[in-house]
Amino acid sequence: MRISRRSKYLIFHFKDKLLLVHLGMSGKFLIKRKKNNMIIKTSFYYDLNILPQHNHIHFILSNGCTLIYNDVRRFGFFLIFENTKFNKIVFLKKLGPEPFSNMFNIKYFEKFVKTRKKNIKNLLMDQTFVSGLGNIYVNEALFLSKIHPLTQCNSLKNKSMKNLISNIKKILKISINRGGSLIKDFKNIHGTSGSFQGLFNVYGRENKNCSRISCNGKIKKISISNRSSFYCTSCQY
Question: Is 237 inside any structural domain?
C-alpha cells in the first residue's frame, strides 16, 4: 500500500482498490498505539484537544495500531474505488494542474482565461484552474504581482500573467521552506510552528501601511466569495 496526494485529496493505493480521502476543514488522522492506547498526533493541528465523540472512523492496522479519523465539523469524506477507475474519478478529473507543475504555464493560463469573465482572486481559488492554492497564498501572490484581486482575469496582459505564475511558485516555495503559516493552532506533525506568517505582506494586515518602502498605500480588507481578501489601495491595481 502507498499513499499519494492530488490537490487537497489523499489517495490510499491498495492492491485492487483506491481510498480517496478529503479531510474537509477540520479533519485529521490520529494513530493509537495498541500497547498503551496512547494517541500519536499526526495532524498539523498538533495542539488540539482530541474529543472522542468526534472519532468517526477506525482502521485497525496489521501492526496492531489503530488509525482514527477525527473530524469536528464532519465536512470530510472517504470514498472507495476500483484501481481501474482512477482516471475516471470525478473529483480528480476536474482538477487543474498543480502550481509547481510544468503544465501551469503562460500558454495554459492564456487559454483558460480567454473566454472567462471572472475576477483573478476567484480564478486562483478555483481548483479546476490550479489545484491546491489556499487563500493566504493567493492574497500574497497577487500583492507581489501588483494585481488587484477584483481584476477581471481575461483583462490581464501576458506580462502580468507570467509575473503572477512566477510569484505563486515563489510564495509557495518560501512558505514550504518556512514550515507553513502559523494561523491559530497550526503546527507540523512534530509540534513545530511554521514561520511564514512573519513574512505576510497583506494577509491579516488590515489598515496597516503597505510593506513596500516606495508605497504610501494602506492594506484594505474586503470579502470576495465569502473569503477574506487583502490588498494595497495604492500599488495593486
Answer: no
